[in-house]
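2024-03-11 09:14:02 DEBUG pipeline.ingest accepted 1 chain
2024-03-11 09:14:02 DEBUG pipeline.ingest length=155
2024-03-11 09:14:03 DEBUG pipeline.predict start
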Amino acid sequence: MFLIAFGAFVVAFANIKYNRSRELENKRSKALQVKALLRPELRRNEELLGKMRSALQASNVPVEPFDTTAWKTISGSDLLLGLPDQTVAELMQVYRLLNQANDLQTRVLESTVGLMSALGNSGNTRQLFLQELSAVIKHLEQSLKPLIDRLEQSG
């Protein structure tokens, strides 16, 4: 009787260990997939960030938007469950800034050539959008490179 109870305990313990091990491996796999998908996009965005900063310093309007395609795919799936909470929070912050920059860039372009350009106060509005875009670019410069480095260091 004791051997049967002991055998049941061993089987239950092994089953729990197996499930935990499988769950951990699943999280690692998801984290690797996220990193493989996001790294190229974040690197392209980092290059574009430099071009955008240069264009803004020369009082030009950058035309190419930041790419957020991989993020849209990943954030709509369960792949983020494999990453540490801190990394997810940093990714969310960076992509919020990228989307904000894209929105501001669109507004600047619209105030330059679109319907808004016909309005009497479009020059002031454009200048406000450019100032806000510059502030967002500054925040991105502070947060994008460390995030890319962390994703590359962690595998």
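2024-03-11 09:14:41 DEBUG pipeline.report The mean pLDDT is 83.
2024-03-11 09:14:41 DEBUG pipeline.predict end
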